[in-house]
């Protein structure tokens, strides 16, 4: 049995093709993301990866729509979104496949 600490991972990402990681793979990325009320991520999209976000605690605004605890949002490749934490929030994020350098700011060109 191996034991890891989420706090030792970079920005909550613990499975994927990066170090440190609990399980190194090019198949998927998994992270537990924590946001404070007011945190904001600029509009972006992925060209390769599908991003799945599960809201565990809190409330967020994505594409002018409010999501809260229990909601699961699937963002397909080339769909864009921004993100604002309306409350302190915890998300689990899954990206398939693990695709390095696949984050592009703004709408798809």
Automatic annotation (TrEMBL):
The molecule here is called: Cupin domain-containing protein
Looking up InterPro entries in the UniProt record yields: RmlC-like_jellyroll (IPR014710), RmlC_Cupin_sf (IPR011051)
Per the record, the domain of life is: Bacteria
- What organism is the protein native to? Campylobacter cuniculorum
Recorded hits in SUPFAM superfamilies, A to Z, give: RmlC-like cupins
